[in-house]
Design goal:
By secondary structure, the chain is of the alpha+beta class. 46% of the residues lie in helices and 12% in strands. It has 2 domains: 102 residues, Phosphorylase Kinase, domain 1, CATH 3.30.200.20; 238 residues, Aminoglycoside 3'-phosphotransferase, Chain: A, domain 2 (Alpha-Beta Complex). The chain has 11 helices and 11 strands. A hairpin with a 5-residue loop joins strand 2 and strand 3. It is globular. It binds adenosine-5'-diphosphate, 2-acetamido-2-deoxy-1-O-phosphono-alpha-D-glucopyranose and magnesium ion. Magnesium ion binds next to loops.
């Protein structure tokens, strides 16, 4: 990557400041501008997002739409959705060169970002926030959205990508991950369930977030409410099952995504129940019978999918997700697979919980 002075990049947005790396995202480079008020500067990952202009057009349209809806419901758009800061020449982002595109947001003050929930009520709040996001975008013109990553949650395609990684063994790591590859093969029987139901028309295409990690919702520091859904790069037409399942993969785990002691990892049914309660309080009325039936399985499926993405990236030599230590992606894959096996056992209980809230 060509190096730029971040101070100079900030001045393109009329902000004069020193800045520090910020947050725990796996994809973009995020920095905090210590001005008053504060701002977030992000370098968009051009390896992941091949067309930053399309990503930014989606974000501008979606945040504009959400801002109007939030206002109409009596909320505060400057805290409940992201606010883009324009460059000096009125653009939504700055392209230093095609590989170095930067955007600036208002920093949402008095908010908390969490990598793990320390109280199940936080899952209720996250569920409500992601459910509200889904509801507010339910009449957004989906055909105006760009597909920023093609086949992002197409699990059978993700299985094929893992098979290709195994086939080429680019980093020479295959021999050490045979147990994980075997696990991935065994559970691939679930992979096509949601795409098949979508093809059959029983699961509709909706505008979805597609990356509903707990740390992609900001909580109000004063009230604890789930307040602002962030990380909007992957807002695209998708299935509500992607948002529900992916949130539980991360939020309902007993431990961190990269925990190395697998005895500390299980799927927490209380966290599951709280998230489902919050999410369904906003969305239950408009879900189809098949969507409701598949809610429990979506947690298994999205956890499996993320696990095989981590595993493929480990085999490929860590070219996609940011890693901070040796075997980081492998550790992440292992927690996901531990969760998959546990969720499989808990599916009947999860179905009973869902019945309470629809
Ligand atoms: P990534 O795609 O790399 O995950 P995110 O957009 O999620 O990047 O940003 C990384 C982290 O930075 C978030 O998890 C959150 O903690 C923090 N963050 C991002 N945008 C804001 C904002 N506008 N206000 C406050 N915190 C933010
Ligand atoms: C990435 O950007 P971040 O850290 O919120 C990834 C998600 C994965 C997640 C796993 C664009 O999310 O799909 O589920 O890591 N985002 C992209 O933690 O690939
Ligand atoms: Mg993020």
């Amino acid at each position: 990557m060509k190096k730029y002075s971040l101070k100079e990049i900030c001045s393109v947005f009329s902000i004069e400041t020193n800045i520090e790396p910020y947050g725990n995202g796996h994809i973009n480079d995020t920095y905090l501008c210590e001005t008053a008020p504060r701002f977030i500067l992000q370098r968009i990952n051009s390896n992941v997002f091949k067309n930053p202009g399309e990503v930014m057009e989606n974000i501008a349209n979606v945040t504009g739409w959400l801002g109007e809806k939030i206002k109409a419901e009596g909320g505060d758009p400057s805290r409940e959705t992201l606010t883009l800061i324009k460059t000096k020449d009125g653009k939504n982002y700055y392209e230093a060169d095609p590989e170095n595109c930067f955007r600036m947001y208002k920093f949402v003050e008095r908010s908390v970002s969490r990598d793990i929930a320390d109280d199940p009520i936080q899952l209720y709040e996250a569920g409500r926030a992601f459910g509200k996001f889904q509801r507010m975008l339910s009449d957004f013109p989906a055909d105006t959205l760009h597909e920023t990553i093609v086949d992002f949650h197409n699990t059978p395609v993700r299985v094929k990508q893992l098979e290709a990684a195994v086939e080429s063994n680019a980093a020479g790591r295959l021999a050490s991950v045979s147990a994980e590859v075997e696990f991935a093969k065994r559970y691939s029987k679930y992979a096509s369930r949601v795409v098949d139901e979508m093809a059959a028309g029983r699961v509709p295409l909706r505008v979805t977030h597609n990356d509903t990690k707990l740390n992609n919702v900001l909580f109000d520091a004063d009230t604890g409410e789930g307040m602002c859904v962030i990380d909007l790069d992957t807002v695209m037409p998708g299935s509500v099952l992607y948002d529900f399942g992916d949130a539980l993969r991360f939020g309902a785990s007993s431990g961190s995504e990269d925990e190395t002691d697998l005895d500390k990892i299980w799927f927490d049914l209380e966290k599951f129940e709280q998230f489902a309660k919050g999410f369904l309080s906003e969305t239950a009325a408009c879900l189809t019978e098949t969507e409701i039936e598949l809610l429990p399985l979506s947690a298994l499926l999205l956890t499996y999918e993320c696990g095989i993405r981590f595993l493929a990236d480990h085999i490929n030599g860590d070219t996609y997700f940011k890693v901070h230590r040796e075997n980081h992606n492998l550790d992440r894959a292992r927690t996901q697979f531990k969760l998959v096996a546990d969720i499989e056992k808990k599916l009947p209980k999860m179905a009973d919980i869902i019945k309470k809230y629809v």
